[in-house]
Amino acid sequence: MFQAYFESIKYVGHLLPISFLRIFLGYFYIDLALKDWKFYSIGSGGLADLFVEALNKPALPSWYRLLLSEQIIPHWHTYAFILIGLQFAVGISYILGYVVRPTSLLAVFVCLNYLSISSVDREIFFKLLIACHILLAWVGAGRCLGLDYYFFKRRRGLWW
Predict the structure, then answer these.
(1) Does the residue 10 lie in any domain?
(2) Number of domains, the chain
């Protein structure tokens, strides 16, 4: 397995800059999850306050407004736990380079959630982050400096 890890640089070395982007985004998501864990688990109602503030946005779609008011705000502890778990999963997957394609599509949905509740000044950041996740899914960035190359050699498929 370690041989396949170093062999990936030889055969898929053109993906090396993208793999550095993948590893950086993995660190970013783990750091974000740790900060959110401290804020939402210790603080009282932090995520609920964020969603109540998002309900006042005029550009929020009506179906998302209904989802926020009926499901997410009353059960914000569960939703915060799920969101932080997804951030940890994306971060660990990106750092290890394991199942990067499905995880990056999951990260796009997390970013779309943040995009819909964020303020206007952070909108460009989340759009750029969505573009990075789509790029990682498109090229299969886990095949260089990651575990995906080991599985890509043995079982070809869409996941790797």
Answers:
(1) no
(2) 1
Q: Which helix (H) or strand (E) holds 140?
A: none
User: 87 lies in a domain?
Assistant: yes
Please check whether residue 151 lies inside any domain of the structure: no
Most confident by average pLDDT, 6-20, 82-96, 129-143: 82-96
Residue 113 lies in a domain: yes
CA–chain centroid gap for 117, Å, is 16
- pLDDT single digits (tens) 103-140: 999 999 999 888 887 777 788 888 999 999 998 888 87
Domain with 43, as residue range(s), is 16-138
> b vs e for 62-77, b when ≥16 Cβ sit within 10 Å of the residue's Cβ?
eebeeebeeebbeebe
Q: Distances from the Cα of 129 to the Cαs of 49, 68, 103, 105, 113, in angstroms?
A: 24, 23, 14, 12, 12
Mean of per-residue pLDDT scores for the chain: 79
